């Protein structure tokens, strides 16, 4: 049982952070500074917001929407999650996949943010040269009596500044971890089958969380 | 808790096995998971055990004990495990880490009031996560197939072989008093589970297929731990549009890569022509 639980815990914490990442920052900020600023800002808001701590889904999603999403490259994340079948998808399918995957990630990890209490986040030194266009920013969740859990953000510099395209929690990529289950869905029902299951899942989550469907399709 | 497990074990295992036989012939797409039929059945069984016994116990535990007390419990349990962590670090040739673990045990057992306080952690001696499965992996033992064990959950065959030693080393079998021993074991399970309340909801929501999600998470994390984070992470570009002529930006990046970052371009072979692969070594 230990191991399952182990990783579940990592998963939760990640979730906290995965969601807690980036905020309103200028495009020319260094990637490590960006990650630090956004994490700090979001966690401060969560710490002060009783409604979020009580599990107010709508409120936390709004926070993530405003502060975190602008710093993620969801198209790239979706491509990495889908793998080589991405090439078979039409432009329209790619857009729908990206929207559905973004909604799923935001839903689930925003919720995890409501569980955040008093873990401490440490920012590990990141080494990169000014000319680098791809950087790994390392952070750790420190908790008493347990091994710190690493949360690493992979960022790439594009036209719109640094964007996160992968989050690695305790050694596991949250993005590529989806690849086999996506592959399974595609083998069963093609790209459209995968889109359908993602959209269905999002609808179910939205209902469960008592939110309108119009909200579920929203994204940055 | 043990009694509950024991009395129902035979029947449940039989049920799981028959379910495995029924689904055992299903095509398995994943080469790491030839036992998928059996594994899925056992995964379902473990989820039931969790739902009926372990999770409710953890919820009571969390509701009854205030947070500082639970932290203390976690510290004591963690402290009991540190000598085994130390031994495994030493077996892997990581002498500094191993000595650090022994220092942790010495400090926390004394100044930390029998492990109640993690004074060593405060003093800059971090807790490590090592076990015999990782040590075997470090020695070059292959991981073998993925296998879900009753109660213990996901393992590879290698880690399953190491499990009895890991289990015994972490339980205070030197305590002759059976009730005390079982209390420690029960507390360990319930405490660990309590730290995951909430995470299970995330798993529930995030996964399209919980079994696959857990399996892939477990396998990737074990590989990461065995290599102490030094495994290579590869990001391919599946985007035709941006897969333009290989070279260019990637080469520039390679030229400026420092320390832990390394980009390489492999896109020259006909099979992968037009595809850009950036490699990045973690750590």
UniProtKB/TrEMBL annotation, chain A:
Identify the stretch annotated as signal peptide in this record.
1-25
Per UniProt, the keywords (alphabetical) are: Signal
Keyword DNA repair applies? no
Family annotation (PANTHER family): INTERMEMBRANE PHOSPHOLIPID TRANSPORT SYSTEM BINDING PROTEIN MLAC (PTHR36573:SF1)
> What is the designated name of this protein?
Toluene tolerance family protein
What organism does the UniProt record list as the source? Thauera aminoaromatica S2
Automatic annotation (TrEMBL), chain B:
Signal sequence segment: 1-22
Task: Kindly give the Pfam families that the UniProt entry links to this protein.
Answer: MlaA
This entry carries the following GO cellular component terms, namely: membrane
Q: Does the keyword Signal apply?
A: yes
Please, one GO biological process term? intermembrane phospholipid transfer
Keywords associated with the record: Lipoprotein, Signal
Q: What is the similarity comment for this entry?
A: Belongs to the MlaA family.
PANTHER family, alphabetized: INTERMEMBRANE PHOSPHOLIPID TRANSPORT SYSTEM LIPOPROTEIN MLAA, LIPOPROTEIN VACJ-RELATED
The name of this protein is VacJ family lipoprotein
Q: Which organism is it from?
A: Thauera aminoaromatica S2
